[in-house]
């Protein structure tokens, strides 16, 4: 049943040989680079302990990063970046396992392989072996990076294990989702939903002080390992158990269903359609599932995060770190800690929403590669109308999900209109990413997927995470990433249309250039 | 206007690889034109240039009197295209795809749509992802035949159809021709070409090697002779592919040497003789095989 697994595994390794080392290195830099940075900024045990105390008291920050477990350089580095590492690695695990299971089936390559001397379970096993192996490798590399920076071996190993655990859980979840749904995109969506819920539960736990809630979240388990604190290895057990359980269920389902199909059989649909009459109406059909998923997810996130706003306590504003925090996220001394928290949430909703237009626009590339664009463009539909329809929905969709989240966040926080405004100002910043997506698709179609994901990660990691590690001042991010330029309308800044207009112009310019390039290039 | 498609000295290179190397193609209005050539000869590439999906590196291309790259949208109002590899939107049903493509082309004939669905035995209520390859092709064919396009560009449209559906397809093409439409048909199925096409163009390695009616092309080729002789086989300098087995001989000979060859045989004395007119297969084999030696 698993004949040929090793051959398939080597095939997977070959296909991942460029991408996997890249993200492994990125995560190791996130782990150890931050520690190196803190070691410079806080040369004495006292200074790092002061920093830890200030941060631990700041509920708005602990909600994002988790509890402070160890007032040391290593402990604070983990505190700062571990949550990002766990989440990014979980996302990578989902994308990788789905790409090599459901993605292969969708492309028909699995059929070619399945007809060879290959056991029924070999493709799933190969994908699991590679992905799980990569998760272990990532944990080890991060641990080694910490050890070689000079930190405690046990703590470094438990940190590595916590990283691996987060990756393994979502390897299993992704494998299971790939068996349940019929398309790769749906599988990624389902697994990402689990990741999102898990994130929210962990966030709520640390934001509300109900820390026991962390036991209900896979990322929470990794947080509970408390590296460089008391190294609670027992918290790894539920992670390993869930990873094993989901993988086992994936095998069970893989043994029962037909290649290329999901569990739910197809029902007949309409014999025709009067509504599908334009490229836009077709694009709407293709996007509405994605949009519905994001809208529901964002509505729920808004509610949960908004409810937490009421429990953010005030803290003393004396310490240097608190001052820096306020400098980044508030614009007036009158702004309360709750205001800072709400602006952080609005910003985060914007940062994550930046993925939406990129995903929506990558459909264009998929349509092109899979020959459906050819079918459409051989009718009197111009390339501009075709791509324009998708672009319109990418822009309108990202505006809609932010509006939805703004409403629920505002309702739950008790300031519906104000908070809605705070999330709506994110729209032009998110749109800039749409511009990047169109530009990549028009100008460098082969690299479009890579550029889109890289742009998303860069925007998310640069200002808060990568920049500081590389020694780049936070305020430099303003010139590179759109979000820090937004008027902080929730924390004391007057609304100013200037930056929003500039971002809109950038979006228009990039989209225009991308569409012009698309008009001139050959279609794949 | 009596040329639907006119291509002269068309070149297309992908980096260093030359997919098209001076291709010529003329399709007259109202004819069914066969477009043939071995795998990788450049048929699909030519069609994609005709559709304005790709730009020619050099050469003159006129489609329905216009420039397919610059006037793509206007020209597409007047044509329908069926790709060789039909990929549909997995979540749409076949009927929805047919309606969509029809509407985009400016409407389709509802009664013709029903009739075609019935003739092709296609269930329009199935989701596209559950269709077989042949059924996906039928979806594109129904959409094309139900449109009122004046030019049909079909790239190996029957590679997945069963023999019964193949004959339905052939009837449909004949009907289209009777309605005065022009068809460019790329195909590897010789019987289909033989029964449908008024004229054919054969291309090889990106170049047109032969173009004309089938009768004209046949004329250029060889007759196969098998003879049993009364004595030893004589010298036959005009013969190709000569095989001798005792007094039996099989060879091919060009039409203009046929007379000389048969005279030489009868000098020895003919016991039995069969001659086969050149089949279409022979015709193509000659072109397709010489490609191997050309490379
Ligand atoms: N996008 C591309 N990039 C590089 N080479 C290409 C590209 N598209 C086609 N080619 C090359 O151009 C040549 C012609 O290909 P084309 O698809 O036109 O052949 P074809 O005659 O349609 O063959 P078949 O009968 O197999 O369908 C081939 O050698 C192919 O490899
Ligand atoms: Mg072809």
Automatic annotation (TrEMBL), chain A:
Keywords from the UniProt entry: Membrane, Transmembrane, Transmembrane helix
Record carries keyword Transmembrane helix: yes
Ranges annotated as spanning the membrane: 84-101, 121-147, 159-178, 190-213, 233-254, 290-309, 340-362, 391-413, 425-444, 451-477, 497-518
Domain of life of the source: Bacteria
Record protein name field: ABC-2 type transport system permease protein
Species this protein is from: Nonomuraea dietziae
UniProtKB/TrEMBL annotation, chain B:
GO biological process: response to antibiotic
Keyword line: Antibiotic resistance, ATP-binding, Nucleotide-binding, Transport
Domain of life: Bacteria
Stored SUPFAM superfamilies: P-loop containing nucleoside triphosphate hydrolases
Recorded GO CC terms: plasma membrane
Gene3D superfamilies noted in UniProt: P-loop containing nucleotide triphosphate hydrolases (3.40.50.300)
CDD domains to which the protein is assigned, alphabetical: ABC_DR_subfamily_A (cd03230)
GO MF annotations in UniProt: ATP binding; ATP hydrolysis activity
InterPro entries per UniProt: AAA+_ATPase, ABC_transporter-like_ATP-bd, ABC_transporter-like_CS, ABC_transporter_ATP-binding, P-loop_NTPase
PROSITE patterns for the chain: ABC_TRANSPORTER_1 (PS00211), ABC_TRANSPORTER_2 (PS50893)
UniProt subcellular location: Cell membrane
Family that this chain belongs to: Belongs to the ABC transporter superfamily.
Protein known as: ABC-2 type transport system ATP-binding protein
């Amino acid at each position: 049943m698993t004949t040929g697994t090793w051959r398939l595994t080597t095939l997977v390794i070959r296909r991942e040989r460029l991408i996997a080392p890249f993200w492994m290195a990125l995560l190791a830099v996130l782990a150890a680079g931050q520690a190196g940075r803190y070691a410079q900024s806080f040369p004495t045990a006292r200074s790092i302990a002061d920093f830890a105390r200030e941060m631990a008291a700041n509920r708005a920050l602990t909600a994002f990063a988790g509890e402070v477990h160890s007032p040391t350089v290593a402990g604070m580095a983990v505190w700062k970046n571990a949550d990002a590492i766990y989440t990014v690695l979980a996302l990578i695990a989902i994308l990788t396992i789905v790409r090599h299971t459901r993605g292969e089936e969708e492309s028909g390559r699995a059929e070619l392989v399945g007809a060879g001397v290959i056991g029924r379970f070999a493709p799933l096993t190969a994908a699991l072996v590679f992905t799980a192996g990569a998760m272990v490798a990532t944990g080890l590399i991060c641990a080694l990076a910490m050890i070689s920076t000079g930190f405690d071996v046990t703590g470094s190993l438990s940190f590595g294990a916590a990283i691996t655990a987060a990756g393994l859980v979502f390897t299993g979840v992704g494998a299971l989702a790939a068996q349940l749904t019929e398309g790769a995109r749906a599988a990624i969506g389902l697994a990402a939903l689990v990741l999102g819920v898990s994130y929210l539960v962990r966030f709520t736990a640390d934001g509300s002080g109900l820390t026991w809630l962390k036991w209900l979240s896979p990322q929470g388990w990794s947080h509970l390992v408390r590296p460089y604190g008391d190294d609670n290895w027992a918290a790894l057990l539920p992670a390993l158990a869930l990873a094993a359980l989901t993988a086992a269920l994936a095998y069970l389902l893989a043994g029962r269903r037909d290649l290329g199909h999901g569990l739910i059989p197809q029902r007949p649909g309409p014999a025709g359609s009067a509504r599908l009459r334009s490229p836009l109406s077709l694009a709407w059909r293709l996007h509405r599932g994605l949009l519905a998923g994001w809208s529901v997810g964002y509505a729920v996130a808004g509610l949960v995060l908004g409810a937490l706003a009421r429990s953010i306590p005030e803290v003393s504003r004396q310490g240097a770190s608190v001052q820096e925090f306020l400098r980044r996220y508030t614009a007036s001394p009158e702004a309360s800690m709750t205001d800072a928290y709400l602006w952080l949430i609005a910003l985060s909703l914007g940062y994550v929403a930046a993925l939406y237009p990129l995903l929506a626009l990558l459909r264009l590339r998929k349509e092109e590669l899979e020959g459906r664009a050819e079918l459409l463009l051989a009718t009197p539909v111009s390339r501009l109308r075709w791509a324009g329809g998708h672009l319109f929905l990418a822009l309108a969709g990202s505006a809609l999900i932010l509006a939805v989240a703004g409403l629920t966040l505002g309702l739950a926080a008790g300031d519906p209109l104000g908070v809605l405004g705070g999330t709506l100002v994110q729209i032009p910043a998110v749109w800039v990413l749409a511009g990047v997506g169109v530009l990549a698709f028009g100008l460098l179609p082969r690299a479009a997927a890579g550029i889109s994901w890289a742009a998303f990660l860069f925007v998310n990691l640069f200002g808060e995470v990568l920049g500081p590690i590389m020694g780049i001042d936070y305020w430099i991010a303003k010139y590179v990433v759109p979000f820090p330029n937004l008027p902080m309308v929730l924390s004391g800044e007057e609304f100013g249309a200037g930056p929003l207009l500039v971002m809109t112009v950038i979006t228009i310019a990039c989209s225009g250039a991308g569409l012009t390039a698309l008009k001139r290039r050959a279609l794949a | 206007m009596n040329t639907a498609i006119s291509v002269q000295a068309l070149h297309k290179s992908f980096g260093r690889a030359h997919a098209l190397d001076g291709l010529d193609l003329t399709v007259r209005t109202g004819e069914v034109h066969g477009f043939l050539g071995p795998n990788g000869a450049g048929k699909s590439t030519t069609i994609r240039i005709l559709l304005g999906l790709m730009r020619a590196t050099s050469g003159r291309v006129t489609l329905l009197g216009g420039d397919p790259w610059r006037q793509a949208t206007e020209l597409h109002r007047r044509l329908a295209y069926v790709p060789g590899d039909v990929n549909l939107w997995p979540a749409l049903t076949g009927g929805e795809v047919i309606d969509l493509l029809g509407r985009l082309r400016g409407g389709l004939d509802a009664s013709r749509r029903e009739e075609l669905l019935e003739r092709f035995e296609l269930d329009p209520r199935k989701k596209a992802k559950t269709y077989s390859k042949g059924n996906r092709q039928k979806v594109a064919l129904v959409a094309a035949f139900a449109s009122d396009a004046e030019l049909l560009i079909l790239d190996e449209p029957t590679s997945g159809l069963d023999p019964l559906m193949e004959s339905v397809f052939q009837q449909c093409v004949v009907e289209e021709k009777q309605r005065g439409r022009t068809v460019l048909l790329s195909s590897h199925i010789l019987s289909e070409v033989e029964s449908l096409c008024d004229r054919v163009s054969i291309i090889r390695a990106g170049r047109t090697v032969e173009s004309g009616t089938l009768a004209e092309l046949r004329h250029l080729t060889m007759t196969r002779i098998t003879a049993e002789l009364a004595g030893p086989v004589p010298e036959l300098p005009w013969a190709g592919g000569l095989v001798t087995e005792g007094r039996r001989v099989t060879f091919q000979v060009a039409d203009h040497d046929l007379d000389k060859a048969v005279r030489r045989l009868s000098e020895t004395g003919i016991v039995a003789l069969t001659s086969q007119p050149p089949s279409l297969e022979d015709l193509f084999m000659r072109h397709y095989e010489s490609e191997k030696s050309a490379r």
